[in-house]
């Protein structure tokens, strides 16, 4: 099987998406399989053998038949972008975080040498040799190639937790660029193929039809339907502001008579449980069996001192949310990523990782209340967070 092939088993039934991500990132680093850019944590990880795995694409019928191929911009997929260019296919690469549109079409210079095609497949080459493809670019994607942090032989996929691959796919459905039977391929190391419980999947999660590793080609025969378009009730106004092309798609769908009510425009959803409201990309709430409800568990968490931060007390006028029971291994970037995912970004974040806590300052009470309800029951790195209004504990 070779070194690093097998990932240490996760406890059955207890693993959240975030637990699985952490385990994969940790294993790739510890086993020496991780490649530049490092650390791989927080990324679609690059791995030893990625080029070899990408080369297996050429043996796939779905690749041979495809004329237009969409490949994500991640480093481990560089070989897939190169294979598409060498086979003279139209190569579409999503713009990073969808800031400036949906795709760039890679256009190598006329008579490009092998070396030039190699450059065009890199992230720098994508910037230098591409043309933007708008909503009216009439893209007809025959094959979708995505990166993954983990994937199961059944085709269940876990990304890095930001939801861009799912959003890109949903947008392609909305603009008619993919059909129900457009195949999806992911390329990973063998140790990233593991069992994933189906209950971790949400209805917006993209599944895959083929998995390529350095040693295997797996056809998943996955029957679970792929996302049928953008689920507007899971999109926030903030996300709409960050992704300009979403606004255009939304106005088109509105004109076509579709319900495009956003997540924060649903009065009935305002107090819904966080797990159903958020898109659960970051990590599923994973309280231990038999744990007390969140409100009762507050006093049981270990926080080293009073939850009111002395410097914030009396000095600030903004409502502040206290977040405790943070795992020692957690980074501030991971907490920020979770807050972004749940669309509850504070105006100021006071990080006290050594004390396993943080303070989130919000503009007004409404924003703080939204953060409180969204963060209740949230599990990060295996710890269920303790969340409460800091000021309510001054007495």
Q: Can you tell me about this structure?
A:
This protein is an alpha/beta fold and 395 residues long. The protein has three domains: 17-219, NagB/RpiA/CoA transferase-like (Rossmann fold); 232-268, no CATH class; 320-389, Alpha-Beta Plaits, CATH 3.30.70. It contains 13 helices and 16 strands. It has an eight-stranded mixed sheet with strand order 4-3-2-1-5-8-9-10. Strands 12-13-11-16 form a four-stranded antiparallel sheet, covered by helices on one side. The longest helix has 14 residues, at 17-30. Residues 287-316 are annotated as: Disordered. This is Methenyltetrahydrofolate synthase domain-containing protein.
Task: Please give the count of helices.
Answer: 13
CATH topology of the largest domain: Rossmann fold
Number of discrete domains: 3
How would the global form be characterised? globular
Structural class, by secondary structure, is alpha/beta
Instruction: Give the termini distance in whole angstroms.
Output: 60 Å
Record the strand order, biggest sheet: 4-3-2-1-5-8-9-10
Relevant CATH superfamily of the largest domain: NagB/RpiA/CoA transferase-like
Keywords: RNA-binding
GO molecular function: RNA binding
GO cellular component, one term: cytoplasm
Pfam family, one: 5-FTHF_cyc-lig
């Amino acid at each position: 099987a070779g070194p690093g092939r097998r990932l240490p088993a996760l406890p059955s039934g207890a693993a959240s998406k975030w637990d699985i991500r952490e385990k994969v990132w940790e294993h790739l680093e510890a086993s020496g399989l991780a490649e530049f850019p490092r650390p791989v944590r927080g990324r679609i990880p690059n791995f030893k053998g990625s080029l070899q795995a990408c080369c297996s694409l050429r043996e796939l019928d779905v690749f041979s038949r495809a004329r237009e191929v969409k490949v994500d911009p991640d480093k481990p997929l560089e070989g897939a972008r190169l294979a598409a260019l060498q086979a003279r296919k139209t190569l579409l690469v999503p713009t990073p975080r969808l800031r400036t549109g949906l795709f760039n079409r890679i256009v190598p210079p006329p008579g490009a040498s092998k070396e030039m095609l190699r450059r065009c497949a890199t992230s720098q080459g994508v910037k230098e040799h591409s043309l933007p493809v708008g909503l009216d670019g009439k893209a007809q994607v025959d094959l979708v190639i995505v990166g993954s942090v983990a994937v199961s032989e059944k085709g269940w996929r876990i990304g890095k937790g930001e939801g861009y691959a799912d959003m890109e796919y949903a947008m392609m459905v909305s603009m008619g660029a993919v059909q129900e039977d457009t195949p999806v391929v992911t390329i990973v190391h063998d140790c990233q193929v593991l069992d994933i419980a189906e209950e971790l999947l949400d209805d917006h999660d993209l599944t895959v039809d083929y998995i390529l590793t350095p040693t295997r080609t797996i056809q998943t025969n996955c029957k679970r339907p792929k996302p049928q378009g953008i689920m507007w009730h899971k999109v926030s106004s903030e996300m709409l502001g960050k992704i300009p092309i979403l606004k255009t798609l939304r106005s088109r769908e509105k004109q076509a008579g579709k319900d495009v009510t956003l997540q924060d425009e649903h009065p009935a959803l305002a107090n819904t449980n966080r797990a159903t409201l958020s898109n659960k990309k970051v990590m599923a709430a994973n309280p231990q069996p038999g744990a007390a409800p969140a409100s009762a568990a507050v006093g049981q968490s270990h926080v080293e001192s009073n939850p009111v931060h002395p410097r914030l007390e009396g000095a600030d006028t903004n409502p502040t949310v206290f977040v405790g029971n943070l795992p020692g291994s957690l980074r501030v970037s991971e907490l920020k990523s979770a807050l972004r995912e749940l669309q509850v970004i504070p105006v100021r974040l006071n990080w006290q990782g050594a004390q396993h806590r943080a303070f989130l300052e919000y503009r007004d009470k409404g924003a703080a209340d939204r953060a409180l309800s969204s963060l209740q029951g949230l599990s990060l790195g295996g710890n269920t967070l303790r969340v409460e209004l800091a000021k309510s504990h001054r007495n």
